[in-house]
Design goal:
alpha/beta; two-stranded antiparallel sheet; 18 strands
Length: about 400
């Protein structure tokens, strides 16, 4: 339809513009439209439903650097090896290698996610030269990237740096950037605290930074970004959204209880969280959670802090979830979205998480489960699918992609 409209306007354009400029305009417009349609057509067909994404925190770049060394230490003990992703290698107790940065690994992850019906990944975003950005770099260079869209999760503490803001603007212009509400780029903003707000000049100063950012994005020819505040408190999230001129609220994770709780209880807590968000009057992007168990980080604390609560000597966590339970939780989230279109006009959900292995939340295939979690959610996201790649329907037991 979009390409056809360009052809329909061809004669009018040639009349209003001169010679080469007119031809160039039509060719560029045709190219952009064809590129957008090609990206849409390469994704697996699905029934009309809300879009669903998953959080990526990409610390899995080998046993090096502060972050890479810390997560290898956390997951080193054999009792945590059931969480290791399909591309990990186990050389013994306390001897593991986790490197998800080869292009072949990212390409395979894209195939897994697309076959399961995920619409986008939300990358926690860092400077371009940070090792935590390697996975995003590989995604952007992938020949199959059009099968899964992407957007960004930004932390408040990075917004004082203009180079970071410029990076966000640039990434929003990439093909495949996830959009909602007829073209608005989707952006998550979280981990707001008074310390970082002070560096930004308080709420008013941060609002000015975001207003300039929004103006820059629209000046590039994009629609106004749809900015979703992530906060563990719906009321606080609403406060930040109003003060910063943002559009909706969500959270990075939610549903936690005291001590160890069944996954079913966590799901109940999450559904209460969705309703609490709705009652604030803010627009909502509900968070769906695959699990929460940060004991690896509690037992071997990471250098950037381990702010994980406990109760009666038990780390706050959920008991392991079955693939079927995760799929049912997602199904209920989609039903909630459809039932509350007034509160959730973007019709988008986000899942914690694709690869938070040491915190206890993941969808990515593991050495122990294979792709069972993805197979389960595929029945929710792609109920009419007649086939899926064999790499998804079979356990990913090999250590090489």
């Amino acid at each position: 339809m979009l390409v056809q409209s360009v052809h329909d306007q061809h004669d009018e354009v040639r009349m209003r513009l001169n010679g080469k400029i007119a031809v160039l305009f039509v060719l560029v417009a045709h190219g952009i439209c064809a590129q957008d349609l090609s990206a849409q057509q390469s994704r697996p067909a699905r029934e009309a439903r809300p879009i669903v994404g998953a959080i990526r925190w990409d610390a899995w770049f080998g046993n090096n650097g502060v972050v890479g060394t810390a997560v290898h230490r956390s997951l080193g003990p054999s009792k945590w090896h059931n969480r290791l992703p399909f591309y990990a290698k186990v050389n013994g107790d306390e001897a593991i290698e986790i490197d998800g940065t080869p292009q072949a690994v990212i390409d395979r992850e894209i195939e897994y996610a697309a076959a399961a019906g995920l619409d986008y990944w939300a990358f926690v975003t860092y400077a371009a030269d940070d090792p935590l950005s390697l996975a995003l770099k590989r995604y952007l260079s992938s020949s199959v990237r059009s099968k899964v869209g992407f957007c960004l999760i930004t932390e408040c503490g990075r917004w004082p740096h203009q180079a970071f803001v410029d990076r966000v603007v640039s990434l929003m212009q990439e093909p495949g950037y996830q959009r909602v509400l007829d073209g608005r780029p989707l952006l998550y903003l979280g981990f707001i605290n008074e310390q970082w707000l002070e560096k930004l000049g308080g709420v008013e100063g941060f609002r000015r930074v975001l207003d300039t950012f929004r103006a820059t994005v629209t000046a590039k020819g994009l629609s106004r970004p749809y900015i979703v505040i992530m906060d563990f408190s719906p009321q606080q999230g609403k406060k930040w959204a109003e003060g910063l001129g943002c559009d909706a609220i969500s959270s990075y994770v939610a549903g936690l209880g005291k001590g160890a709780i069944p996954y079913a209880r966590m799901v109940e807590n999450l559904e209460h969280f969705w309703e609490e968000c709705r009652r604030t009057g803010a627009q909502v992007v509900p968070i769906v959670v695959t699990g929460w168990d940060p004991r690896p980080r509690v037992e071997k604390p990471v250098p950037w802090g381990s702010p994980y609560g406990s109760h009666d000597g038990e780390v706050n966590r959920s008991e392991p979830a079955t693939p079927a339970a995760i799929a049912d939780h997602l199904r209920r989230g989609l039903r909630w979205l459809e039932a509350h279109r007034d509160a959730a006009p973007a019709q988008a959900a986000i899942i914690y998480a694709w690869n938070e292995f040491d915190e206890g939340g993941w969808l990515a295939p593991t050495l122990s489960e294979g792709a069972a979690r993805l197979d389960a959610i595929a029945h929710v996201l792609r109920p009419g699918a007649t086939s899926r790649p064999s790499s998804v329907s079979q356990p990913a037991a090999a250590t090489q992609p």
